[in-house]
Amino acid sequence: MPISLKNLGLTVLLVSFSAVAQKTPVKITVDLSEAARRLYHAEIDVPVKAGPLTLITPQWIPGNHAPSGEANAISGVEFTTADGKPLIWRRDDVNLYEFHLEIPAGVTSIHAHLDAIVTSRATKQMACLEWERLMLYPAKIPVKDIAIEPSVTVPAGWGIGTALTPTGTSAPPPTTGVMESAHTPPAGAVTTHYAVTTVEQLEDSPVIAGKYFHEFPLAPEVTPKHYIDVVSDEPEDSNLRPELLAEISNLVREAGAAYASHHYYSYHFLLTLSNVAGGEGLEHGQSSDNGVGEKGFAEPAATLGNSDLLSHEMTHSWNGKYRRPSTLYQPDFATMQQGMLLWVYEGLTQYMGNVLAARSGLKNQAQYRDMLAMSAAALDNQVGRVWRSTEDTSIASSIDRQPIAPWGAWSRGQAYYQEGELVWLDADTLIREKTGDKKSLTDFLHIFLGKGGDTGPWIVPYDRKELIADLDEVLSYDWAGFLHDRIDVPTPHTDLAGIERGGYKLVYTDKQSMSDRMMSGARGPRAGGVNVWYSLGLRVQADGTVGEVKYDGIADKAGLFSGDKIIGVNGDVFSADALRKALDDSKGNSKPIHLLVQTDDKLNPLDLDYHDGQRYPSLVRVEGTTDYLDEITKPLAVLK
Ligand SMILES: [Zn+2]
């Protein structure tokens, strides 16, 4: 039950459901039965009064940290009055997400019909509905104050997963579109109706639906209730392995122990398993939208690559959704969401996502350390750190969501994720050491993420001052200086203090870790590529195509560039093994490595002056020190 937050000064920030319920809601019914044609259809009824009306569709999508709303994919827009008279509309000349109409006297409700062209997240067997693709609602009103009543139509036999509260089912409502786009749902299609919510909450409540659907309850002894809803393209994939379900139940228990509060009435992991419609990870307050390849939780290499997906997105229910940087929380989806503090929103989530994955068995402790080594090494070798602070990568997040392929490490992209992870590991080990193991970051998380105790899916903004005060409550320390030195200014090296205080040292060896090998294996995320970043300074795909070249590294200096294709290595046809052998052979002699390289339609010989063999990052234990890394990744909850 919600409790009063008056004494925390937070009352004004809460969604007032009782006030909303008194208003006539916008009604929206989305028809997913043409997912195979990549078209979703919406029927929307909007209460209006006579005079000018502006309707709007979302631009700034929470969690995307960018103005990624796809107003351009909205087609077939028609407005009519209740008696079917068409209304003329005109798009705003400046805000392209706004539609202007003039409502005639006596009209109290208008109807809109529109389609969304969906270029991703839909196949013949499944559909993922992100409501922002089709939502239309009055502009310039806080989205938490607009009541909306959603319904979803799916073909006969399809299952639906969502955190929305169902109220009943019916046959699909009549279709009103009169143009080419008008679509009648197929025979047997079913419309499920959901309880009235707000535009803010509906945007935060995606729906997955599919022919091959399973819903599994998780950690049955935990309140509130948790579920994982799964749709897949192949019938067998959505029936998740019992071991995986046990690990996800452990994740629910571990999140409860780590955060000691909940900010949802129930929680749904939504999981799509598809080689076409996968590739997603988006947080929501009462659910998370997770998409991976169809065997993404079946094959060991893929499972390791996806091991922190569910724990990361679930952590966001607390860190990012409930507690949100004040500048990232705006009253509508039209105002810019500013990125500062994303090293908390995403960085702390990156840290806890990996820690919780290890605590719940989604990866083991050695895999946690291997992957931490890979991440830390990548950051420590990120040449762009000479010019760009982590804070700047946060501030500019909305223009950095797509990696800039040729020079990612020089631009730094969204380094705040992994950089933040190391800073929070630093803070965790620092608190443990300075308090003689009496306290840890867990104490901070209980304070920071648990303000107000258990709540519904509310949003409680914070600023850096509050963050520092909450850290100080756990350990009196110069946290302002700690964060400034690590976040606000460019640093020549990444923050390795947490790894070192944690009892380990980042080193480079000629042995690739088991996890690194799995990730680079034929079925791993790097799909048979070769990781020679720490030796030759480049990433190579399985067919010899050069991914990224390290700025000022050996390969860059020799003239190799992203997109080139390595055809030959020391006289042999290129293969991953041939390149690794050439590295081994380079050791202790002065002969260069000979490459034959295709650039555009030309072949060129190219020599790499390199003699240090294979080099891969690894964490080695420093004997005689406290092993905080293994301590941190031990289960915290009493596991069933
Ligand atoms: Zn995230």
Mean pLDDT: 93
SS field, number of helical segments: 19
Class derived from helix and strand content: alpha+beta
What share of residues is helical? 25-40%
Which kinds of small molecule does this entry bind, naming each only once? zinc ion
Q: What form results from the Cα inertia axes?
A: globular
* Main beta sheet: 9 strands, mixed
Spans of 5+ residues with little confidence (pLDDT < 50)? 1-22
Q: N- to C-terminal separation?
A: 26 Å
Please state the CA-atom Rg, rounded to the nearest Å.
26 Å
Helices and strands, with pairings:
Layout: H1 17-21, E1 26-31, E2 39-47, E3 51-56, E4 74-81, E5 86-87, E6 89-91, E7 98-103, E8 109-117, E9 126-129, E10 137-138, E11 147-154, E12 159-162, E13 166-170, E14 190-194, E15 197-198, H2 199-203, E16 207-210, E17 212-218, E18 225-232, H3 242-259, E19 266-273, E20 280-283, E21 287-292, H4 300-305, H5 309-315, E22 323-325, H6 342-345, H7 347-360, H8 365-380, H9 390-395, H10 408-411, H11 416-434, H12 441-449, E23 460-462, H13 464-474, H14 479-488, H15 497-501, E24 504-509, H16 514-520, E25 530-532, E26 538-540, E27 546-549, H17 554-558, E28 565-569, E29 572-573, H18 576-586, E30 593-599, E31 602-608, E32 616-621, H19 628-632
Parallel strand pairs: 1-11, 18-19, 19-21, 22-23
Antiparallel strand pairs: 1-2, 2-8, 3-7, 3-10, 4-5, 4-8, 6-7, 9-16, 11-14, 11-15, 12-16, 13-14, 17-18, 20-21, 24-32, 25-26, 26-27, 28-29, 28-30, 30-31
Helix pairs in contact: 3-7, 5-7, 7-11, 12-13
Bound molecules: zinc ion (ZN).
